[in-house]
Amino acid sequence: MHEMSVALSVADQVEQAARAHGATGVERVRLDIGELAGVVPDSLHFCFELVCAGTLLDGAELLVRAVPGRASCTPCGREWATGMPPDLTCPGCRSAATALPAGRELTITEVRWARPPAPAPAPIPHREEN
Amino acid sequence: MCRTVDLKQAVLAKNSMAARILRTELTARGTTVVNLLSSPGSGKTALLERELRLARERGTSVAALTADLATENDAVRLARSGVPVKQVLTDGLCHLEADMLAGHLHDWLPEETRLLFVENVGNLVCPASYDLGESLRVVLASVTEGEDKPLKYPAAFGLAHLVIVTKSDLAAPAEFDEDAFRAHVERVNPGVEVVLTSVRTGEGAGVLVDRALRAAEGDAVHAPVMARA
Hints:
The complex is a heterodimer of chains A (130) and B (229).
Chain A: H1 3-21, E1 26-34, H2 41-52, E2 61-67, E3 70-73, E4 78-81, E5 99-102, E6 106-113
Parallel strand pairs in A: 1-2
Antiparallel strand pairs in A: 1-6, 3-4, 3-5
Chain B: E1 4-10, H1 13-28, E2 32-37, H2 44-57, E3 62-68, H3 73-79, E4 85-89, H4 98-106, E5 115-119, E6 136-142, H5 149-152, H6 154-158, E7 162-166, H7 178-188, E8 193-196, H8 207-216
Parallel strand pairs in B: 2-5, 2-6, 3-4, 3-5, 6-7, 7-8
GO molecular function (chain A): nickel cation binding; zinc ion binding
Family (chain A): Belongs to the HypA/HybF family.
Binding site for Zn(2+) (chain A): 73, 76, 90, 93
């Protein structure tokens, strides 16, 4: 269950980015998680909520985009869905896939900061009655 | 202030960076790291006991670090080989990370170590995601675990440089289908070498030390498709 470690890494990086941008809160974090990244999104949601509690990310929404695995074969020019469990042998020439263009992502793609709190209304001058 | 920013940051970037630094530092001093992954009970420790003894007999300077949630049993077993051994207790954590390993090596790893074997926590899920700065990643599976293990744990098997089958002396009673196992490994990691071993019969003796030394000498290791993202 390394989703806790993954959630901590996400929270750390977003918090650093927030400080760099002068943000005081985080509304939303978007992640890409590849089919072959070995991370369970449900479990990550649970851990993310726990690690964010009491931090600058408290209440931030986690949006996960699942990225299907895709492999490619340069000699054949083919690209195919790897499936799960993945098949990394080219369906055309039966040689090993040349590359895995998608499916191993574990990336923070976008962060939306929370709206800064509205400034407190200026106090109305108080005049002593004589 | 623009409220939405594109970060495009790899979540495990910090670990990857720590692993790269560790690999560079250790390679510079002549130490090569071998990361051993398997499910609990597949025989990592038994195989390591044999390989450490063999390495010592051959005069290769080796050391081993073993990680478990609890007990020092594995370190006690490995220390019988007479090589430097360190037990790391992870206090419940299911995997090792590069900065943890670096911290444990800091004041322990003997300077002359040629090969450092790291026995990861017994788990085929989480350790797969963490580069430890190794030059050789080895995944083990015993014949009693079933031929479909590579399909159930594709990341672990898919990122391995070498696959070792353990307890081959039990292949017949366990009705282990070697061809099916090899086909499943090939599906998730085409081209990776699969070697059968048994500490009882001596099958495959020295394979781990041999492949680790080749990697240490700069021979190209297998490049898994899954690592070509």
